[in-house]
Amino acid sequence: MNKLYRIGFYLLGNIILAIGITLNTKTGMGVSPIISIPYTISNIWDINFGFITFVVYSVFVGIQFLLKGKKRELRDLLQIPYGFAFGMFLNVFSAIMDIRYTAFWQQLIILAAAIIVTAIGVSMMVNMHFVPNPADGLAQAIGLKINKDMGFGKNMVDCFSVASSLVIGLIAIGQPLAFGIGTIGAMIGVGRCIALFNKFFKDKMCELAGMQTA
Q: Whole-model pTM?
């Protein structure tokens, strides 16, 4: 039963994360940093969002291998099929979630929901310690490379993603596509919501999954 709970929490976490990311793209207020690059490329050149997310995630895995050097492991490559499956989740939810709004306050509600849902998904997935999201894997690799924690690596990945999407948008069409108040909200709010969710639910989840809490 412990293994079933662990697998179940991990899979459900990924689905919830995909829903949260998709919600973020529907706000019209910018997107979360981690998908700002594929979102920008997808919208400028009309490339399938899920597919380009998979491509960007694969590049992240490649960078991890370079950073880890002799510490790299073959199981890190599992992040590539993970990226493909996650990209398909994004395609599905993007297709079925037809969200409309007529006022700014409605956009803010959607943004708040996106931040909360994303945080829940990340927490459930990361706490089960299976294959990480390639962006999280890259954040961890950066942290290890410069003797910092994963949180610092996450900040670097977020900043790189936002900066890259801004440059791509400005060069290609003369304006940014992925950056807005929603991007800033995600950068600040997701981490805080993860901490809050973990405070109330992490111990119980890990107990059901037969895992020790850190």
A: 0.88
Question: What are the domain boundaries of the chain?
Answer: 2-208
State residue 214's pLDDT score.
Answer: 53
**3-state helix/strand/coil string of the chain:** CHHHHHHHHHHHHHHHHHHHHHHHHCCCCCCCHHHHHHHHHHHHHCCCHHHHHHHHHHHHHHHHHHHHHHHCCHHHHHHHHHHHHHHHHHHHHHHHCCCCCCCHHHHHHHHHHHHHHHHHHHHHHHHCCCCCCHHHHHHHHHHHHCCCCHHHHHHHHHHHHHHHHHHHHHHHHCCCCCCCHHHHHHHHHHHHHHHHHHHHHHHHHHHHCCCCCC
> What is the pLDDT confidence band of residue 154, given thresholds at 50, 70 and 90?
confident
Residue linked to tokens 């995600």: 186
